[in-house]
Write a structure and sequence with these properties.
five-stranded parallel β-sheet; Amidohydrolase (chains A, B); homodimer; Urease, subunit C, domain 1; Metal_Hydrolase (chains A, B)
Chain lengths: 450, 450
């Protein structure tokens, strides 16, 4: 049995409704992979203390630190860190057709593994304890996640153009990954409503067997318009009639979700969620951001993500959280919407739901997984602190994260990874980076024409 | 005579037109306050080297670092760091009338000095070497700037409601600050077109005597509409007919600048600039951002700023630069506009112009002031690097800045301030923070009703 005590720490409390708050001077008691108690400092005898018989494995001094639920990156393509900065100043069509999909001809298992290791390092150092991934060679991503100590939900990506054998292989990998490690879950990963046929979506839903379907849909207003013009239905209607919503979906982006789609999504709100990655929508000049207000009114959980670093340039979930708050206020022309508490709830409970891990992660309370980030708010850019919630949403940097636990394991201690040799991870990525962005091969894994 | 040699560093080159680039393996030679040469590493004998007779004061190893022009915060109210996080989730009316202007009743010289010291610390540690300020007790801000080693242009703020003596005192302070220190320049600081009468704006322009007028104007579309309804003219037309544009202005925000204002601004483009702080426009749900494309087409220089931390929550100019790129692409529905090069040019040459320091700062070349930030891009969130310009705009963090020079003086070395005791600066700010946000006094320094 492993034990960790985080002593004398402030704790972010995120209730289901109402205001978030910070409780000061708390002890967080961790046993194996779970939080077993949170008590006022010194109120409960520490394991290993005189008079108790339990061995104490580690005490972390939380004095001056704020404990927050480990962040969740609710939609990403982690190995794409290898293409960071290689596809700039392009609209979505050119981004896909002139850069990303031609580059992805270069994917190999090794290159994906190297990229995933770098991604896990970046995320853990920034306080991200779970990521929800959608990419090729997902077994390599699983290996990197297991090695690094991070938690992941992995969806092996497929296009209909790849043929039935490739799709079957993706299904098989989802099944295989589901049983590999307690920190790994797996989802089905059709790429999008515009790259996977309705027939294949239907087959995916039929074979879901309790697993979620993670896919891109209604990414832009233009995609929705094209879908209506070509097929007479919105992408969300496609997801309903193919059974994807019935099976349970994580919809990436959804900026093109229409008012008329909301009642549909409401019917499946117990099993269907949306991930929002707004930095990307601005950078690609997509014209809209996710209609989070409407989705929340329909009872649909929304999480926060970065998307891949080939467009977001970082896997910094703090940045993504801030962008959600800012762009939602802008979208609704309402500075009193997406408050500090709304934003923190979305980033914690919402993202946990998007990861398919409601009740497991997302909140610091007894019984939940011990996925915890300790944040140091003492640097000048956060001081003085009139409201620590405002610091978390509007001034904190990923570099303010000092210690991170996932499933009770200390994976970052004093800003250093404990699980991987960062120098080696960076060197490998640097060595292989040029091979990923090489356009001399010709061809592309897909063509964007929604 | 003081000498610094930054050896074997990469250098960001920002031409007036066209693509920015990074030159690798350069030596930057600094003498006293200026850059005297930038040469391929080892190409020019270092001062102090055998065979030369000049004494060498300091060599900085630039290996693995990228030298960029010290950042410029082209519009801020630095002491408002003392109100960081104290006015959240409010629209602009309530932000002013329920929080900020009632809080500013509490301003004292000491509190402003303490806030300005903290602000200078935050900015220098993040690579900001110049800030353009607009606030009360500007002599205290000057003292903090001089002490910290940062460069500043300071505009003592005044409202017409404060009466003629207060306005005269503000004019007097501008004159006084102008001669205080080589790193300090001063501008005239009427608050805004809606808080200063046309008569007082005219008097300001008449007494400018070659100094610039830094003020808020056309901050929102609503302000412009109100101005047209009440007075029959846009705020920019007010600035023209009162002689402010003729004298030379730095216009903060300008989100409400109309198409018809552009030909007016074009006439004064040799002396009138605009500062854009887009995080604030989203956070306050102002509905628009600065029309930078139109302004640039009219030949008007635009700089990047944070505004005060009571709304921006940081004085992080990297964050402000990124928000400019993202929101401009969004505004123009054009992912190919505000490219990496456009953005970096705005943040360097544009901000230097906004600071009234064209030809002095903003570019790394011989003859310019030695205001230099050395950035370490080796951390996972920037790696691998396919394009260092993309790293600067979309992935770098202020915490990646390791060394900073202002006017040839090393003010940050290995992420530590050399000029101030940071512990003391933070402790003072913490001690006084509650006094700034106390609303029990009643009253307000002004009322927002544009």
């Amino acid at each position: 049995m492993s034990r960790v005590l985080i002593r004398n720490v402030s704790v972010l409390v995120v209730p289901e409704q109402g205001e978030c708050r910070v409780d000061e001077a708390q002890d967080i008691h961790v046993q194996d992979d779970r939080i077993v108690a949170i008590t006022p400092t010194g109120g409960l005898a520490a394991p290993g203390a005189p008079g108790t018989r339990e061995p104490l494995f580690e005490v972390i001094d939380g004095d001056g630190l704020l404990a927050v639920p480990g962040l969740v990156n609710s939609h990403t393509h982690s190995p794409m860190v290898m293409m960071r900065g290689a596809a700039e100043d392009l609209a979505i069509e050119d981004w896909f057709n002139r850069r990303i999909w031609p580059m992805e001809v270069n994917l190999t298992a090794e290159r994906v593994r190297v990229g995933a290791r770098l991604a896990c390092a970046e995320m853990l150092l920034g306080g991200v304890t779970t990521f929800v991934d959608h990419y090729f060679h997902a077994d390599q991503i699983a290996a990197a996640a297991i090695e690094s100590g991070i938690r992941a939900d992995l969806a092996p990506t497929f296009f209909s153009s790849a043929g039935q054998d490739a799709i079957d292989a993706a299904f098989e990998m989802t099944r295989d990954l589901s049983t590999r490690h307690p920190r790994i879950t797996a989802s089905l990963g059709p790429h999008a409503t515009y790259t996977v046929t309705d027939e294949d979506l239907r087959r995916t839903a039929d074979r879901a067997d309790g697993r979620r379907i993670h896919l891109h849909a209604a990414e832009t207003v233009d995609q929705t318009r094209a879908s209506v013009e070509k097929h007479g239905v919105t992408p969300i209607q496609v997801l309903e009639r193919t059974g994807v919503l019935e099976a349970g979906a994580l919809i990436a982006h959804g900026c093109g979700i229409r008012e008329e789609d909301l009642p549909i999504l409401q019917r499946y709100a117990d099993r269907t969620t949306v991930a929002s990655c707004p930095k990307v929508y601005l950078k690609l000049a997509m014209g809209e951001v996710t209609p989070i207000k409407g989705l929340r009114s329909a009872g649909v959980d929304v999480g926060v993500g970065t998307d891949g670093a080939a467009v977001h340039n970082t896997l910094d979930v703090w940045e993504a959280i801030r962008m959600v708050a800012l762009t939602q206020k802008q979208r609704e022309h309402d500075a009193e919407w997406m408050t500090l508490s709304d934003t923190l709830r979305l980033a914690t409970r919402g993202s946990a739901a998007a990861a398919g891990l409601t009740d497991q992660i997302g909140v610091l309370e007894p019984g939940r997984q011990a996925d915890i980030a300790l944040v140091d708010l003492s640097a000048p850019h956060n001081q003085p602190i009139h409201d620590p919630r405002a610091a978390l949403v509007y001034s904190v940097r990923a570099s303010d994260v000092v210690t991170v636990l996932v499933a009770g394991q200390v994976v970052v201690r004093d800003r250093q990874l404990t699980t991987m040799d960062l120098t080696e991870v960076l060197a490998e990525a640097k060595d292989l980076a040029h091979t990923l962005v090489d356009l001399s091969q010709g061809g592309a894994v897909q063509h964007y024409a929604p």
